[in-house]
Amino acid sequence: MTLLEVNDLSIRYAVDDGSAVHASDDVNFSVEPGETYGLVGESGCGKTTLAKSLVHLLDDNGYIEDGEVWFETTLPQWADENGDPKQSVIDDPDKPVRADGKTDLAQLNSKQIRDIRWRDIAIIPQSAMNALNPVYKVGDQIVEAILRHEPETTAEEAHERARDLLERVGIEPDRADDYAHQFSGGMKQRAVIAMAMACGPDLLIADEPTTALDVIIQDRILEELEALQEEFGVSILVISHDISVMAEICDRMAVMYGGKVMESGRTEEIFDATANPYTLGLKNSFPTITSKDQDLVSIPGTPPTLRDPDEGCRFRERCPFAVEECHAAHPPMYDVATADAEGRAVESTDRRAHTTACYRIDELEQIRTDAINESTWTDQTIESR
Amino acid sequence: MTRISGKYLAKRIVVSYLTLLVIMSLLFVLLRSMPGSFITSMISSGMTNEQIQQIRETWGLNEPLWRQYIDFMINYQTGNFGRSPTYNAPVADLMIRRMPRTLVLFGATFLIGFIIGPLVGMYLGWWRGSKKDKSIFSTSLLLYSMPSFWISWLFIWVFNYELGWLPSAYMFTQFPEFQWTAFTVMRDVLYHIALPIMSLTFIGWVGSMLIMRPTMNQVTDEGYVFLAHAKGLSERTVMIKHAARNALIPVATGAVVGLAFLIDGSIIIENVFNWPGMGQIIVTSVLNRDFPVAQATFFLLAVLVVIMRLVTDVVYTYLDPRIKFGEGE
Ligand SMILES: Nc1ncnc2c1ncn2[C@@H]1O[C@H](COP(=O)(O)OP(=O)(O)OP(=O)(O)O)[C@@H](O)[C@H]1O
Ligand SMILES: [Mg+2]
Question: Which residues, by Cβ under 5 Å, contact ligand 2, an ion?
Fold first, then answer.
């Protein structure tokens, strides 16, 4: 049973000159209960946008252009005594509820989505260090979240829970009475993690949970997240530009580029049977991933601006393997296993399979070999821009 | 939950006191540097030399300057402001009667302005760029550019002359037909104070709004406002409890500046409405060259500002827990 199922999700930002930033384009992925799913890609590829859009937390000029976000939850007013959706709600074509018990979050109004936030999907924002309100005690901010979603809880119970949660992430319970400025950066990060667990969400979104921290603290935070996952069975959607961090903690992941998913699958599959030029390039540029006898090479060029992008594969301008075909349209997702076994390109819509968006999937072996050579990336002359 | 240390408070009080000593000294210097002697106004042409000498004696003008200065400083600090030649009464008595009247007018305007201003600023900043924001904001700027006496006349014309709803002068009904009880007096004062307060607050709120609006707008981009939304809190809660609460901090600083403008405004308003407070007496005493009264009024208004500064400093520490004055020193 899938927890989250994202179908063809496209998100745009309206900008002043009348164009639109296509920050996410036809994205598909799914998250299973209890797993860690990663979104990885260079800065600006739309990871944060995608995550925020799930619970309608986009900036004011951002909107969901198209797509569905099916999540395993039922709004309190639509639930029967077991918490499942009432039959009348499932039958009602105006209510975005499926018979399997999932609700399409994309169709909820702003009042409804506020009931989903934190209770079902908690988010640790990219700048978690600045996420604590300076004028309230840290403990009170956790209490606030608890009381919002569980109004029957007494203030004392909520305070007790807040202290427990802080202790759980390695902060003295008495520090609940401190203000954010009395915390170190790592402590703030952990306090936000504790806050995120306050209502026992099913999905925890961690946006760059380690980026601003030094290596030792990074490891501690990652361990913390894994321990919480084991204890509470929460699924984690983790976002990072650092593919080596992802290799450590993700069960499955999606590699994003320019608002598109380029490759997705189980973590081992993506690292051991990499099937997309962009992923190959990304791997080359991280020291902990590349093998010792290989040079560190970064992908030349810069990510595209996503304003009204033209046709063609999003990555083609920086891709050393680009051919004529790549200019016509962005490639669909192809099944990697079939390509590896039979050398054939077969389209796949299976979210759980290892898939890649590359027309040259039938030449995978050659591409993998060439991608290790530094000269492949540095010598490329890109003809048509 | 005391965040302010006694040591800090003591230090602030000492600084406030020193400020007042400086103000007193300035007043002393100002008065002595007026053209001629400040008793010139008390001397009429028919006086004999003895009479003049006697006046000089009572005002201590025969003493050396340093002696006069010390006497002045001691007198002022003990509440001995001298005698008013025009009212022929101790200045302190005059002040004690007038001060509360001004404080009422002042306090009410200050309070109303600092409730309306930040509230409006909160909404405009939160919805910045919306049609409502644009129209209300430009209207308030228009108000802000109007002189307060002009507003007062407008209000007198509308509410007194045209509609006859509210009195346009004095603090009490001059020849009352009702019994004087605490209740009727209170009602009568409210009735008379309404128009002056309306005139003052009509534009008085704009200042604090102008501070609140942009800070509110900045605060909406803060991480904690995002997190408050992410927690599922209602728009209202996020706006008031998380955004506005933080945006209020700079407004507290602005309150002191607003106070200075308010003093300005209330001097004009008291004169327009014949409100028998400090603002009125400051003008009449200067016109009558009643220097002891003018001096004392200036001084007490300065005391008011210094006290308000002290209060805002304390309020500030409660608004912003990051500020811990004087701790660990
Ligand atoms: N409010 C906005 N208006 C217009 N464009 C935006 C807005 N927010 C983000 N974008 C653009 O959308 C794209 C995706 O941004 P997003 O923040 O989702 O990227 P990201 O992958 O999270 O990057 P990073 O690793 O730097 O956090 C970028 O090109 C960015 O410039
Ligand atoms: Mg991001």
Answer: A 48, 126
